[in-house]
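Hi R.,

Here's the chain you asked about this morning:
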Amino acid sequence: MTPILAKSDERLTARQKERLEMGRGRLVKVAPFYGYIACKTPFVMDSSIHPPTMATNGKVIFAHPDYVRKMTDGQVVTEVAHEATHNVLRHCQRRNGRTIRRWRIACDIADDLLLMGSHGFHKTGTYSDGSSFEMVPWSIAVALGSSVERYRNLTAEQIYNLLPEDLPGGG
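And the predicted structure, written out as C-alpha cells:
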C-alpha cells in the first residue's frame, strides 16, 4: 500500500492513519477494483482543506483530519471509494476549462450514482458525533428541485451540461 502522510507542518496521529488504512482495507473487500486504486493512491492529511472534507487532485487523496475523525467507519470507506472513483474516471484531467464548482458537482453526482448502483454504498446517515450528513447528489437534487435519478448512466460531461450555470448554495 502507498503511505498515508501528513503535510510537513502537521502531525498524523496513529488513529487517523488507522482509520484511513481501515477504509482502504474494507474497500478491498466490498469493491476490490476501487480498493486496489485506493491502495495505490497516496493519502495526505491536510487541515488547510476548507471546508473540512476529502478531495483528490487525481494523484493524491487529501483528507482533513477533523472530517476523518467525525466519520463512522462506513463513511470513511464510502469517502475513500468516492475519491478513488474520481481518480479512476480521471475527473481532474477531464475538466477542460469548465467552471470548477459546476464540474465538481457533476463529477460527484456521477461518482456517487456509480457507487450506489454497483456496490450499494449509502450516501446519507449520521456522523459519530450525532450530526447528520447528506452527500452531494441528494442535496443538489433537492436544491434543484429534481430527482438525482435524472443523471443516472450519464457521464460527468453530460451531467455538467444539464446543471444550471447558477447553482444554488454559493461556493
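The mean pLDDT is 79.

Let me know if you need anything else.
M.
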